């Protein structure tokens, strides 16, 4: 697929669960459970996406630096081993800062690259795409505002024969448990052609202090990111959450190999949400579960590839063995 000069236009797929009524329904369902929850997908409105970008630059948040180091070291090899007309698709692209390292390598090799970033925050995605396009001559960018499955189905439905390289960076796979990640990768495998590949960033199991520090930073940016969920309920659903009555907490569950993130009620309270016409009761120290971040070892990664119908062809590490980038191809 040769590159053509194009004006950036956001493709917004509204057949997924991003509409306000789905947000309301998910909040009603999650806060009505015995163990209150809010789906982590709702972190990423425009403000949440901007806060997360700030998290990526924190001293304690080693993941971004480690993954960037891997990309700096191996992007040329990845590009060299790819066909000239390979399309790059990214799941949860954000600002594409790390991805630029790989895009640079493809443009250097081929003179152009076709890039399809998929993210749920349309405004943030369009702004990021415009900035990236201005700074990277040779980039043909096609931003898609959607959940992952909807975005992938849209791209693969075009009957384009170009090989595809899917990027799933930043340890986003860690938000899913084993069954969920296997199921999601099986779905991707089912639409892949023989030469299609996926690169997955996976955070590695390590000591508790390093992991917990990464999610409890000294500047409290991660706390702001977590509490933004309540701000979003207030602004979009006429909620009456007093953010000062909740605190951020992230702990490592070593037995299950995951960071668990919560919002803890500091007092006994009732919170009314206008759009739901309902109050929700919280006991002191009761918490809302907002996110998991599963960690991996090499055996876990091999098993995930096998169970989802892929073969692990490359397993790259940073210099301190904190993080991994893994290449899966369809068997």
Task: Note down, in words, how this protein is organized.
The protein is of the alpha/beta class and 331 residues long. The protein has two domains: 50-54 and 208-294; 62-206 and 296-330, Rossmann fold. The chain has ten helices and 14 strands. The chain has helices spanning 20-32, 46-55, 62-80, 99-110, 122-135, 148-156, 178-191, 208-215, 221-237, 298-307; strands at 11-12, 87-91, 113-119, 139-141, 144-145, 164-168, 197-203, 246-253, 258-265, 269-273, 278-282, 287-294, 310-317, 323-330. Strands 1, 2, 3, 4, 5, 6, 7, 13 and 14 form a nine-stranded mixed beta sheet that branches. It has a three-stranded antiparallel beta sheet with strand order 8-9-12. The protein has a two-stranded antiparallel ribbon with strand order 10-11. Strand 8 (246-253) and strand 9 form a beta hairpin. Helix 2 (46-55) runs antiparallel to helix 9 (221-237), helix 3 (62-80) runs parallel beside helix 4 and helix 6 packs parallel to helix 7 (178-191). The longest helix is centred in the N-terminal third of the chain and has 19 residues, at 62-80. It is globular.
């Amino acid at each position: 697929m040769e590159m053509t000069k194009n004006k950036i236009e956001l493709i917004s797929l509204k057949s997924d669960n991003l509409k306000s009524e789905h947000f309301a329904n998910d909040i009603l369902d999650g806060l009505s459970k015995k163990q209150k929850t809010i789906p982590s997908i709702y972190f990423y409105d425009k403000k949440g996406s901007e806060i997360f970008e700030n998290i990526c630059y924190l001293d304690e948040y080693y993941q971004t630096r480690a993954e960037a180091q891997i990309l700096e070291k191996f992007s040329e090899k990845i590009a060299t081993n790819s066909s000239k007309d390979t399309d790059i698709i990214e799941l949860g692209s954000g600002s594409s800062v790390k991805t630029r390292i790989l895009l640079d390598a493809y443009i250097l090799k081929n003179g152009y690259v076709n890039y399809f970033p998929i993210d749920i925050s349309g405004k943030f995605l369009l702004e990021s795409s415009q900035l990236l396009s201005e700074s990277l001559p040779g980039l043909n960018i096609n931003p898609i505002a959607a959940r992952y499955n909807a975005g992938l189905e849209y791209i693969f439905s075009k009957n384009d024969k170009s090989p595809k390289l899917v990027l799933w960076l930043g340890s986003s796979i860690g938000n899913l448990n084993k069954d969920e990640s296997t199921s999601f990768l099986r779905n991707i495998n089912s639409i892949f052609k023989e030469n299609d590949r996926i690169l997955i960033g996976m955070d590695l199991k390590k000591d508790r202090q390093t992991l917990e520090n990464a999610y409890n930073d000294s500047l409290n940016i991660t706390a702001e990111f977590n509490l933004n969920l309540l701000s979003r309920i207030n602004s979009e659903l006429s909620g009456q959450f007093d953010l000062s009555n909740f605190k951020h907490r992230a702990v490592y569950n070593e037995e299950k190999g995951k960071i668990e993130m919560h919002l803890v009620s500091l007092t006994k309270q009732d919170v009314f949400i206008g759009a739901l016409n309902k109050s929700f009761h919280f006991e002191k120290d009761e918490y809302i579960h907002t996110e998991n971040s599963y960690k991996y070892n090499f055996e876990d990664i091999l098993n995930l590839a096998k169970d989802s119908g892929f073969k692990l062809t490359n397993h790259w590490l940073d210099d301190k063995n904190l993080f991994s980038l893994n290449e899966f191809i369809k068997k």
